[in-house]
Structure formats: structure tokens, C-alpha cells
Automatic annotation (TrEMBL):
Residues 117-191 form the Cation-transporting P-type ATPase N-terminal domain. NCBIfam families: ATPase-IIB_Ca, ATPase_P-type. It is a multi-pass membrane protein. This is Calcium-transporting ATPase. It comes from Urochloa decumbens. Catalyzes the hydrolysis of ATP coupled with the transport of calcium. This magnesium-dependent enzyme catalyzes the hydrolysis of ATP coupled with the translocation of calcium from the cytosol out of the cell, into the endoplasmic reticulum, or into organelles. InterPro entries: ATPase_P-typ_cation-transptr_C, ATPase_P-typ_cation-transptr_N, ATPase_P-typ_cyto_dom_N, ATPase_P-typ_P_site, ATPase_P-typ_TM_dom_sf, ATPase_P-typ_transduc_dom_A_sf, ATPase_P-type_domA, Ca_ATPase_N_dom.
């Protein structure tokens, strides 16, 4: 434990005086248990298989954060027992009319200091000291003052790397360093033998070429870093609902200040440290901070909320007490630097290819140097003898060595990883314009290989702006799309029934009506909740009037497993009433009574039950989403028990419509022709799901629709036969989606893309090869688990991601074909020439020049070709398929042979063929060979635009 104590002594300023033996014993025991627990966790991470290396990397970062937190807590606990920190109010705090020091306020939450909280008068006392009220919030005019005193909600980030750091990195290449040494030796020997300036030409030419290569590489890498920083900032844009100036507003988490009243709901990330004001069944997932998987229940007795944690269940209001670097998360992040972007699978694969080619290049370079040296020594021995050496001989040997090193430079395709990065970055930028934010580079590339897309219905295939289209109430089904139909509904039901109906709508909802700054009313909430509340407001019945007749006592938020939500209200007569709203088949099962036209509760006969189920099916077959509303009167209730599961009285059935996004049908059709199977996985009624699936073309004649309950009851053998046919899975639980994705990847080796928007979708998003979260309807938990965020929640955008993914893969194949052809020709021509003539026709400067153009402009041109329609007419690349295809080998070998024939003819018969004579004929023919080589690569570049088709000029100017 010495290292641990030493670390704490250094990092946490332990007091020099020894605390009591009991305090030391307790502290040692706590830290010992901590270390044991952390070691066990690190071993678990180390044992992960290779497929999960990226996850292991992320988890290890989290483990470091958690370890830092535990060490910090242990140290602070230890210190707290030995010294007390005094906080004082400075002049600027007093002038700003605040009554609590920022550090003291932050420490109350971060240390969960109940004693200090009580000392300040609890949450009410703190709110007075920071001039914030629970209903009104803070005043927007105070924002600057609050930020000056209590800080801004931003974390300190590492400074960006400067351009010159990228230049320095580019200069670290070993082959370039060797070439620089060769260039300097060449310049020195040249000056000694041929004088100035002629002796400088070769050496200076090589140095200038190297500097040009370095500058181009550095500029490219620097621009990449700026682009990734821009994308990273886009990734961090999170919006939260707050109450300010008495109205509810949506603001960026960066604009959050101490005193803000924040509204939290399921799936939200807690944006700052704060104190719980009030809420319903608030469960917080603190695993990102504590490492413990069990959620923490937050209440008035335990009101502390920490930044970076997530809302797992329930809803609440929170008052912000610390932001930015004063939060617990901010303090930890300041001690850790997040790891950079991991290499994508394709980059790893291509790095392997580059290594093999580099080794081949090294062998050829060594052989070329050996052949040139042997020929030189034999010629020298036969002419002037090996004992006579001149400065020109040293220059010749240096040039031979430079040629050999340059062959390595040309042979090693450094451009491959660059081409991948360029292509992915270009695709990411284009996709940003197309409303898709790619969070991980590899997702863009992997999406091109996707063979299955498991998509949600609501919000992805449909517009997510729902409206109540039809309603069943008092044994009558009515269309409610126009004002006249609403008046008609008012005339057929009694005021008693209408009052009960409106009370059920207004009380049992997670949506709320808020006033904008301009005085206009807006309904906030999930699309389904908004549709019902908007319908209630249209049907009239003042929301405020209903609020005054009863009081909410208990709320059960919507749960994806129970598929219902409930609220308990107290009535003026002293009794209580439960309202329950949820999936039709579940709520109807809970009912044994129904409300008639006069507002009386009458028993539900079997005939009426059948009529109700027929009405539900009729709504669903018209692609309407159905929800039921019911109530139950009770005399008393138990705080700890859930809402009743029977004895309810059915009030109404809502038929909610959600129209398809424009372009979804065409997008699904494009998927089918591209060999991508689209499967709809939804929590909706099976009839509704089938109707929508048929409308957009997902449910074909050979496909089947199944309910989640039936799916999860199947054995693995049955699933093997069933899964390929599934096109629609209705009434599914999050676990069903996860099981489907796992089996598609495991049993059928499919590359699977999954869309999701809820917290419950996070496991499936994480399990899939590509997780696509919805940017509008998606919760922060879903977005964090995803690889791509679809900013407009539109299925057509997902197809764009697939198109660009395919474009990336094919563009890299084109570049590899181009690069390998150049490498083979350059190696072969220099090696053969060295063996036969004793000299290399392509000099170091020339090869460096060609290499620079190939690795930058060539990569840029081929790697940034936009996708075309033909790409979506071929099947996806399956797992394990070879990256270099037979077609590519055909093109590489064909192009190489053609170039070698042309260059060979010029090298061995050029002087005779072109009748070139004179003392400089050798220089002229070598210049001609170099220019022919360059033009061959220009033709090769254009030929590489199409690997299979004859017309390589198609869309050349687009």
C-alpha cells in the first residue's frame, strides 16, 4: 500500500500530522478493498476477446476515471476527518447579492454533505442564497454575473495541436530521415568533386522533394484534425429544458448556470451537479462515475445529482449547484486526457497490406543496391583498379544508396491510411450536410457492408408528428380530424363523460403546455403524448381548471416493459382516482367496466369486449396507433405499491396517425435493390405495424410479421429458420431487438445496422455493427451508444449513410489498385535496369516527386469520388471477403504489364526507335522514360475510376 499512500500524499495534500489509529485503519481498509475491486475489473477488461478491443479501450478509460474518483473520495474522506476547510464570502459574491461561496456550494453536492445542506436550510435555503426560485427559475439578466461568480458549464480541454507539431510528426518518418542524410552526403561530395552550383543539384533536389512531401502531409493531417475537432464539437451539442424567467425553455448545456431549474426525464444525461427539488420515481445510473451497475434512487432525503450520470427512470426538477470544472465530473476530466480516434477496421487491414508491400520493397531495394554495387566494383576493378578511389566514386555510391532508399519510399504505400482517412473525412463532411453526424469513423465504412437494417417505425419511417385521427368513446367510433367532427363529438357524449375524459388526458400525461417568450403556447413532450394533449386542448376543457379540481399524488412514468403509464389523483371529496393509459390490449385486459354516453360505469359484457377489440383492430388496420385510457376509484393507496392491474373502467380508445416520411418508399426500394434487408422492429400493435410496413414496401410476400412474445418463446433451432423471413416484429421489448441483432450477427454473420431513439434501445445499438440514433426523438443515452446520429430522424438519411459507406469502400479499392500498379512498375523498372544496365533510370528526386503526387493528389482525387446509383445495385460486401478482388488483380496485372512494355521499349530500344544520338542521349532517354512513367500514372489514375466498366470517363467533370 506504500505506493498508494505516496500517491495520495503527493496528489491530495494529506496533512503531515498523523490522524488517529482508528481513522488510519478504516482508511486503509477502504482503499485496500478498492484496489482489490479495481484489479478484478481490469482483469475482466484484459480478458475481452479481440473483437471487443475498442470497447476494452473505452472501458479502460472509464476504469481510470472511476479509479481516480475512488482515490479522490478516499483521500477526501480521510482528510475531512483531520481538517476542516473554511469558506468565506468575497466582495464580488456579496456585491452580486449571493450568500454562498461557489466552492462550498459545489462541495455540498460532490461530497453528498447532508450535514452542510441542513446547515444552509436544505434545498430551500440554498435556493434563496443563490437567488433562484423553483417555479420562476433565475432571471436571464443575471447570466453574466452567475458565470463570473460560479463559472461556465464547460470542461477544460487539451489545447489543439499546432500546424508545426504535424510538420514535426511528418519529419519522423525513418525512410525520409535516411534520404535526408543521403542528400546531405550527396551535396557535400558533389561540392567537393563538381563544385558549386552543379554539385548541389542532386542533394538539394532530394531535400526540396522531402520538404514538399512533409509540408503536403502536414497540411493534410492538420486539416483532418480541424475537421475532427469540428465534428467533435457537433457531437457535444446537447440541449436541455430549463425554467427561466417563469417560462420553460430549451437551451444548450453550455449555457447552463448555477441556479437554473432543469427538467429531467428518462434517457437524459444530468448536465451539471445539482439538488433534487421534486419528481417521480427518479432512478439515476451512476455507473459512469462509480462503476456500480445498480441505479440510485433520488429523493428529498438523498437529493444529490452529479454531472455525467444518466436518468434511468422517472422524471424530476433539479436545481444546478455546480457547473463545468467545479463538478465532480469536471474535476476528474481535468486529470485525464481522452484517447484519440481508434483506427478503423479497413485502416488496420490496409496497414497490414502496406507492411507486406514495404517488406517486398525492402528486399527489392537491397537487391538493387547490391546489384548496382557489384557492377560498379567489377567495372572499377577492370578499368582503374580497386585501389584507386576518387570523390566521384563516393558520389556514385551515395546516389546508388539514395536510389535504393527511394525504392523503399515508393514501395511503402504511406498513402493507403491517408486515403482511408481522407475518404472517411470527406464522407463525414458530406453526411453532415445530409443530416447524419458520424461519431465514429469506422461506422461510415462499416455501413457500406450492412446487409440488414433493423429500423424503428415511429419517427424513422414516419414523420413523428402525430395527431389523433379517430376516437372510440361510449361504444361509438368517431373521426376527429376537423373542427366540425370535434363539435359532433361534444354533442354525443355527456358533460360528465367529457369531464372524466379530459381529466384523464390532462392529468395522466408526461407532456406539458409551456409559454414561449412571445406569449404563444407550445406543447412539449413525446409525439404520442403531444398528440393526445393537443387533442384535449382542442376539445376544450381548460387545463388550469382541471388542475384545481384534483391533485397529483403519485406518478408512474411510461415503462417499455409494462407498456403503460399511470397517475393517482386525490379528488375534492377525499377519495382517490387512478388513471392508466397505454397499449390497447394491455389496458383493455385490466378493465371490467366501461363509461357509457351518460357518464355512468356499466359492466363490460363479452359482446362489448369483442366490439372494443374489433374497433382496436379496425384502427390498427388503417395504420393508426392505438392507446386506451381507463380509470379506477380507490379509497386509499399504498406509497410503496404499484398501480392496480385490474378493476379499471374503460373511458376511450385513441387512434393516432403518424404519416410516412416523404421518400421512405423509394429509400426502402433502394435498399432492396442493394441487397439490404429492412426489418421493422416496433412496440406498436401488429396490425398497425403490418399496415405501415406494407405501405412503405418492407413487408413483402415472402416475409412474415411476428409479435415479440412469439419470437422470444422460440428455440434456437426455430429461430434459425424463422429469422431470415422476419420483416416485421411488433409489440417487441428491448430484449427482443437485442436478441434479433445478436442472432443475425452470430448465426448468419450479417453486418447489422440498428436504429433506435429510446434508452431501452441502447443495448441493441451497442450490440449492432452500426448503431443509428435519432437526433430529434433520441435520448442522450441512445445517442451515446450510437455510431451515427440521424439528425432529421429520417430513414432516407440512413440510406445516404449506406451509399457513402459503399462509396468509401469502393474508393479505397480504386486507390489501392492505382497505388499497387505504380509500386509494381517502379520496383520492376529500377530493379531490371539495375541488373542489366547498371543504372536506375528513375532517380531519387523523380521517384519522390511521383510518390508525393500519388500519395496526396492521387489519393484525394480517387478517395473523394461521390457515390453513384450503380453502387446501390450490387450486393453488400460480406464479412471475411478479400479486400483485393479478382477484378482488381486483373486490372493491376494488366496495367503493370502494359506500362512495363512501354517503359522497357524506351529503356532498351529508345535511342534506336527515336533516333536519339549525341553525348546527352542517355539523359534525354531517361527524361523521356520519366515523363512516360508520369503520363502512364495519369492514365492509370483515370482508368482506376471504374474497376469493372469500360467507360472510365463517365461523370469525369462532376
Amino acid at each position: 500500500m506504500d505506493w498508494f499512500e505516496k500517491s495520495l500524499q503527493e496528489n491530495f495534500d494529506l496533512p503531515p500530522k498523523n490522524p488517529s489509529e482508528e481513522a488510519q485503519r478504516r482508511w486503509r481498509s477502504a482503499v485496500g478493498a478498492l484496489v482489490k475491486n479495481r484489479r478484478r475489473r481490469f482483469r475482466m477488461v484484459a480478458d475481452l476477446d479481440s473483437r471487443s478491443q475498442n470497447e476494452a479501450h473505452q472501458r479502460s478509460i472509464q476504469e481510470k476515471i472511476r479509479l481516480a474518483l475512488y482515490v479522490q473520495k478516499a483521500a477526501i474522506t480521510f482528510i475531512d476527518g483531520t481538517k476542516h476547510k473554511e469558506y468565506r464570502l468575497t466582495e464580488d459574491i456579496i456585491n452580486a447579492r449571493f450568500s454562498i461561496n461557489p466552492d462550498e456550494l459545489a462541495s455540498i453536492t460532490s461530497k453528498h454533505d447532508v450535514k452542510a445542506l441542513r446547515m444552509h436550510g436544505g434545498v430551500d435555503g440554498i435556493s434563496k442564497k443563490i437567488r433562484s426560485t423553483f417555479d420562476h427559475g433565475i432571471s436571464a439578466s443575471d447570466l453574466d454575473t452567475r458565470q463570473n461568480i460560479y463559472g461556465v458549464n464547460r470542461y477544460a480541454e487539451k489545447p489543439s495541436r499546432s500546424f508545426w507539431m504535424f510538420v514535426w510528426d511528418a519529419l519522423q518518418d525513418m525512410t525520409l530521415i535516411i534520404l535526408m542524410v543521403c542528400a546531405l552526403i550527396s551535396a557535400v561530395v558533389g561540392l567537393a568533386s563538381e563544385g558549386f552550383p552543379k554539385g548541389m543539384y542532386d542533394g538539394l533536389g532530394i531535400i526540396l522533394s522531402i520538404l514538399l512531401v512533409v509540408m503536403v502531409t502536414a497540411v493534410s493531417d492538420y486539416r483532418q484534425s480541424l475537421q475532427f475537432k469540428e465534428l467533435d464539437n457537433e457531437k457535444k451539442k446537447i440541449f436541455i429544458h430549463v425554467t427561466r424567467d417563469g417560462s420553460r425553455q430549451k437551451i444548450s448545456i453550455y449555457d447552463l448556470v448555477v441556479g437554473d431549474i432543469v427538467h429531467l426525464s428518462i434517457g437524459d444525461q444530468v448536465p451539471a451537479d445539482g439538488l433534487y427539488i421534486h419528481g417521480y420515481s427518479l432512478l439515476i445510473d451512476e455507473s459512469s462515475l462509480s462503476g456500480e451497475s445498480d441505479p440510485v434512487y433520488i429523493s428529498k432525503d438523498k437529493p444529490f445529482l452529479l454531472a455525467g450520470t444518466k436518468v434511468q427512470d422517472g422524471s424530476a426538477k433539479m436545481m444546478v449547484t455546480a457547473v463545468g470544472m467545479r463538478t465532480e465530473w469536471g474535476r476528474l476530466m481535468s486529470t485525464l486526457s481522452e484517447g484519440g480516434e481508434d483506427e478503423t477496421p479497413l485502416q488496420v487491414k490496409l496497414n497490414g497490406v502496406a507492411t507486406i508491400i514495404g517488406k517486398i520493397g525492402l528486399v527489392f531495394a537491397t537487391l538493387t543496391f547490391v546489384v548496382l554495387m557489384v557492377r560498379f566494383l567489377i567495372e572499377k576493378g577492370l578499368t582503374v583498379g580497386l585501389s584507386n578511389w576518387y570523390s566521384t566514386d563516393a558520389l556514385t555510391i551515395v546516389n546508388y544508396f539514395a536510389t535504393a532508399v527511394t525504392i523503399i519510399v515508393v514501395a511503402v504505400p504511406e498513402g493507403l491510411p491517408l486515403a482511408v482517412t481522407l475518404s472517411l473525412a470527406f464522407a463525414m463532411k458530406k453526411l453532415m450536410h445530409d443530416k447524419a453526424l458520424v461519431r465514429h469513423l469506422s461506422a461510415c465504412e462499416t455501413m457500406g457492408s450492412a446487409g440488414t437494417i433493423c429500423t424503428d417505425k415511429t419517427g424513422t419511417l414516419t414523420t413523428n408528428h402525430m395527431v389523433v385521427d379517430r376516437i372510440w368513446i361510449s361504444d361509438a367510433s368517431k373521426s376527429v380530424t376537423s373542427d366540425s367532427s370535434l363539435e359532433d363529438l361534444n354533442s354525443v357524449i355527456s358533460p360528465t363523460t367529457l369531464g372524466l375524459f379530459l381529466q384523464g388526458i390532462f392529468e395522466n400525461t408526461s407532456a406539458e403546455v409551456v409559454k414561449e417568450k412571445d406569449g404563444a403556447q407550445t406543447v412539449l413532450g413525446t409525439p404520442t403524448e403531444r398528440a393526445i394533449l393537443e387533442f384535449g386542448l382542442k376539445l376544450q376543457g381548460s387545463h388550469d381548471a382541471e388542475d384545481r379540481t384534483c391533485t397529483k399524488v403519485k406518478v408512474e412514468p411510461f415503462n417499455s416493459d409494462k407498456k403503460k403509464m399511470a397517475v393517482l389523483v386525490s379528488l375534492p371529496n377525499g377519495t382517490y382516482r387512478w388513471f392508466s393509459k397505454g397499449a390497447s390490449e394491455i389496458v383493455v385486459q385490466m378493465c371490467d367496466m366501461m363509461v357509457d354516453a351518460d357518464g355512468n360505469s356499466v359492466p363490460l359484457s363479452e359482446a362489448q369486449r369483442r366490439n372494443i377489440l374489433d374497433a382496436i383492430n379496425a384502427f390498427a388496420s388503417d395504420a393508426l396507433r392505438t392507446l386506451c385510457l381507463a380509470y379506477k376509484e380507490v379509497d386509499d393507496f399504498d406509497d410503496d405499491s404499484d398501480s392496480p392491474t385490474g378493476g379499471f373502467t374503460l373511458i376511450s380508445i385513441f387512434g393516432i396517425k403518424d404519416p410516412l416520411h416523404p421518400g421512405v418508399k423509394d429509400a426502402v426500394k433502394a435498399c432492396m435493390s442493394a441487397g439490404i434487408i429492412v426489418r421493422m422492429v416496433t412496440g406498436d400493435n401488429i396490425n398497425t405495424a403490418k399496415a405501415i410496413a406494407k405501405e412503405c414496401g418492407i413487408l413483402t410476400d415472402d416475409g412474415i410479421a411476428i409479435e415479440g412474445q412469439d419470437f422470444r418463446s422460440k428455440s434456437p433451432e426455430e429461430m434459425r429458420d424463422l429469422i431470415p423471413k422476419i420483416r416485421v416484429m411488433a409489440r417487441s421489448l428491448p430484449l427482443d431487438k437485442h436478441t434479433l441483432v445478436t442472432n443475425l450477427r452470430g448465426m448468419f454473420h450479417e453486418v447489422v445496422a440498428v436504429t433506435g431513439d429510446g434508452t431501452n434501445d441502447a443495448p441493441a445499438l451497442h450490440e449492432a455493427d452500426i448503431g443509428l440514433a435519432m437526433g430529434i426523438a433520441g435520448t442522450e443515452v441512445a445517442k451515446e451508444s450510437a455510431d451515427v446520429i440521424v439528425l432529421d430522424d429520417n430513414f432516407t438519411t440512413i440510406i445516404n449513410v449506406a451509399r457513402w459507406g459503399r462509396a468509401v469502400y469502393i474508393n479505397i479499392q480504386k486507390f489501392v489498385q492505382f497505388q499497387l500498379t505504380v509500386n509494381i512498375v517502379a520496383l520492376a523498372i529500377n530493379f531490371v535496369s539495375a541488373c542489366i544496365t547498371g543504372s536506375a533510370p528513375l532517380t531519387a528526386v523523380q521517384l519522390l516527386w511521383v510518390n508525393m503526387i500519388m500519395d496526396t493528389l492521387g489519393a484525394l482525387a480517387l478517395a473523394t469520388e461521390p457515390p453513384n446509383d450503380d453502387m446501390m445495385k450490387r450486393p453488400p460486401v460480406r464479412r471475411g471477403e478479400s479486400f483485393i478482388t479478382k477484378v482488381m488483380w486483373r486490372n493491376i496485372i494488366g496495367q503493370s504489364l502494359y506500362q512495363l512494355v512501354v517503359l522497357g521499349a524506351l529503356m532498351f530500344g529508345g535511342e534506336q526507335l527515336l533516333n536519339i544520338k549525341g553525348a546527352d542521349s542517355k539523359s534525354v532517354i531517361n527524361t523521356l522514360i520519366f515523363n512516360s512513367f508520369v503520363f502512364c500514372q495519369v492514365f492509370n489514375e483515370i482508368n482506376s475510376r471504374e474497376m469493372q466498366k469500360i467507360n472510365v470517363f463517365r461523370a469525369l467533370f462532376h
